[in-house]
Every structure is written in C-alpha cells, then in structure tokens.
Amino acid sequence: MIYVEHLSKSDYSKKMICQFLKEVDSLFIDPFSNHVVLEDYSKKINDLGDVFVAFNGNDNVFNNMIGIIFGYMNNYELREAYIQGFVVRKEYQNRGCGKILLNAFNEEVKNRYENGKIYLTVDKENAKVRSFYKNNGFVESGRIHSNSKKMVLEKVV
After folding, report:
1. Are strands 150-156 and 117-123 parallel, antiparallel or unpaired?
2. Higher pLDDT residue, 29 or 48?
3. What is the mean pLDDT of residues 105-133?
4. Is 52 helix (H, G, I), strand (E, B) or coil?
C-alpha cells in the first residue's frame, strides 16, 4: 500500500528531502546536483514550497520513502502552481506510485485555487515522461522555455 504525506516544514522534513534527493539524483536527466547544493535546495523547497512524499506502507520513515513531488503554490493572483521536481525510485516506477503522488499535488492545488493551473517543465526528448503527463491531463502550454531543449506543460485543475 502506498501512503502519501504532505510534509510539514521542519528540520526533519528538510533532512528527509535532502537525503532522498541525493539517493535519486541520478534518475533525473539533468540532476539537481549539477545546478544546486542539495542541502541548500532542500531547505528552500522545505521552507517555501509544498512537498509530498510517498511511502511504501503506513510507516512514514525514510527507509520506506519511494517518491517525492515538490513545487510552489504561491501565485494566488494568477492561481498558478509549478511542479519543480518529481521522482519515484526506479524499482517503484510503472506501478502507479507516480500517479498517486501527482494526484496528491493536484488535489492540493485544487483546494487552494478554483480553476487553477499547474505548470511543469520537461525535456522535449523524454517521450516517456511527456507521455506520463499527457496521460494525466497535461498539455503543451504554449509558453516558451528559455532552454530550447525543454517544454512547458500545463493542466487546469
């Protein structure tokens, strides 16, 4: 059974985020560690963002952590949220864990914004990830990303 928790803003959450990102960093096409110090980045997303983690079972201990999705839901004027990062451990991929995490993020955005939008950036060449998002209601937004290798997707919730 997969259990999802919306993390509180605490030192323990920051450490959990950092440790998990270190363990799964290589799963990103462009690892976060190439651009940021993971300890500092974990503090930033813990303090300013919304973080959801998936656990295998009801015990929300680090050893059972199988996935994470995080982003920002602070654009109240435009009712927009942005998914900054999303990863599921390799051995749990293609088993519905990502969909469960994404749905948790979607529901939180829905609760905050009526007719809100979620944005995210994907690599144009990553057909598997683009297909996952398309199957979960995301479409090309029409926004131009500053990196020509990336595209912006959106979903109305």
Report:
1. antiparallel
2. 48
3. 93
4. strand
Partner residues linked to 29 by β-bridges: none
User: What are 68's strand-pairing partners?
Assistant: 53, 87
- The number of residues making up the chain comes to 157
Query: What does 56-111 look like in DSSP terms, one character per residue?
Result: ESS---GGGEEEEEEEEEEETTTTEEEEEEEEE-GGGTTTTHHHHHHHHHHHHHHH
Decide if 123 contacts 150 (C-beta within 8 A).
yes
Higher-confidence residue of 151 and 148: namely 151
Q: Would you state the pLDDT for residue 58?
A: 67
Q: What are phi and psi of 23, to 5 degrees?
A: -70, -30
Domain spans, the chain:
2-156
Interval 33-86: pLDDT, tens: 999 999 999 999 999 999 999 999 766 666 789 999 999 998 889 999 999 999
User: At residue 7, what is the residue type?
Assistant: L
Residue with tokens 């995210």: 120
CATH number listed for the domain at residues 2-156:
3.40.630.30
pLDDT in the model for residue 143: 82
β-partners of residue 122 are 151
Of the CA atoms within 13 Å of residue 128, those in its CB half-sphere come to: 5
Our CA angle for 101, 37, 45, nearest 5°, is: 35
